[in-house]
Amino acid sequence: MDLSSFLQALIPSWNSAYLLLGFFAYLAIAGSIVLGKLVPGVVLADGTRLHYRCNGLVLLLLLVALLGISAKMDFVSPTAISERGFELLSTTFIFSFLVTLALYFAGCKSHSKSSSLKPHTTGNLIHDWWFGIQLNPHFMGIDLKAGMMGWLLINLSVLAKSIQDGTLSKSMILFQIFCALYILDYFVHEEYMTSTWDIIAERLGFMLVFGDLVWIPFTFSIQGWWLLANEVKLTTTTIIANCPVFLIGYMVFRGANKQKHVFKKNPKAPIWGKPPKVIGGKLLASGYWGIARHCNYLGDLLLALSFSLPCGISSPVPYFYPIYLLILLIWRERRDESRCAKKYKEMWTEYRKLVPWRILPYVY
Description:
Elements: H1 3-9, H2 14-33, E1 37-40, E2 51-54, H3 56-72, H4 85-110, H5 122-131, H6 145-165, H7 170-188, H8 197-200, H9 206-219, H10 222-229, H11 236-265, E3 278-279, E4 283-284, H12 295-308, H13 320-344, H14 346-354
Helix pairs in contact: 2-4, 4-5, 4-9, 6-7, 6-9, 7-10, 7-12, 11-12, 12-13, 13-14
């Protein structure tokens, strides 16, 4: 694709806008109807807190079923997303921009008496719009579910396109299986998200909204797009070798997050069959958290790598996601270290001595 064709493909269309609005309308309406466990978010400065309805798995399965029935009845094409990828990308970007502007001005209005917020200065306006004003990501019933669901929908449309074009390969199947298992697991353990960095530390600004609505679905699916245009023949040995990367990554990622979540609910709950080692009554130093201070990041990186390995090593393009994630998590780890050092002080110093490794034991 030459530059002029690429720019032409980026022009938003009404069809893309309808697809996007239909998706968010479904999330807003069905999300408020479908039952799910209510999980409290972080306590805000005014003492209030939002409650998240963890119904993502049912919403996702219902949406896929509805789209499948609609495709069977020729109401919608299963390749609609894959055929409008760039249009949807630009349309979603515009939507994210407009939504965060609305959130910013709404936040300014509700925080008009705050001395720390000065929207009349250009610097503060850009800063508050980019990083956000309010914690607890939630907008019109739509929260962090959207990005993960969008990722799966893009993957499924890419899969449908490969079947339609007669290019379905073992590489595509392996990539689709790994991503689908990861996304489904995310919603099975949706409650754990309420104790992650995105919820407890990030604010609802353009950075988070763009990351959730644009970056996650459109960049995490790059491998699928690449496989549509490139043939990769995997041997049985290669397929078998790829699987442990996913399985180990999943075990570390899910295990670490589960231990952290369970510890926050019950600090005395056993870790790997033993009483947990706790520093200052607040910092868990057992299990995965006794191996590395951000061991969950290692699991996330291995999972990201497993999504790219089915594409072979002929091009760096499919490896954009794990490379980007490595940079992001190192940056986030540094921010988290600084935040924890200020919050826990001597306890954090003791924890660092007990657990010297940041992400990868004996390396970093």
